[in-house]
Inverse folding.
């Protein structure tokens, strides 16, 4: 079930961990064009941290680190520090993981991830790895929200693992209905309209 949080300049905008940011259809920044960002941390004093969910690469996680992960491909998590590797998952048994909602977690004890990988428990349906992250300084995201660059939504986070990454942006917008459903049908090249 999707709960859309309306963006209205006359109301206080709310962003929180476990929420998604959906880019408006014609965002000019290529790092975030037609992207879905999972917010992992939002602090008024220090800023916001998250991962782009729908920018897969052809690079396997095993190519990046010494870890055998069958078919897990790394994702571009954002433009910041792409030499770092982060992960989200559905394992409630991984110590020190941060709950984001709906049984989805961020990070945790990487030694346990190694054991799960060796046991072939990890797959693309329960764990995603990201090179780099998306970050906004104090008030930076608020400014982008005021410019209507993003749509904030709260949704069952399992959609992350149940939807093909390249269909995620359109799928969420369609489910939101109304004008958002229309956004999902905009052509990739807006000059074709």
């Amino acid at each position: 079930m999707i709960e859309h949080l309306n963006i209205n300049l006359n109301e206080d905008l709310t962003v929180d961990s476990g929420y998604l940011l959906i880019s408006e259809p014609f965002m000019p920044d290529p790092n975030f064009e037609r992207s879905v960002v999972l917010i992992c941390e939002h602090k008024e004093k220090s800023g916001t941290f998250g991962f782009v969910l729908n920018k897969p690469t052809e690079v396997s996680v095993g190519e990046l680190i010494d870890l055998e992960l069958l078919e897990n491909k790394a994702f571009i998590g954002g433009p910041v520090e792409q030499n770092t590797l982060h992960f989200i998952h559905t394992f409630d048994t991984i110590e020190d993981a941060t709950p984001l909602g709906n049984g989805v977690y961020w990070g945790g004890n990487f030694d346990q991830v190694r054991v799960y990988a060796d046991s072939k428990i990890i797959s693309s349906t329960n764990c995603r790895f990201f090179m780099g992250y998306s970050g906004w300084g104090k008030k930076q995201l608020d400014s982008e929200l005021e410019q209507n660059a993003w749509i904030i939504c709260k949704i069952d986070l399992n959609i992350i693992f149940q939807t093909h990454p390249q269909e995620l942006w359109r799928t969420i917008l369609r489910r939101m209905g109304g004008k958002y459903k229309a956004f999902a049908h905009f052509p990739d090249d807006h000059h074709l309209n």
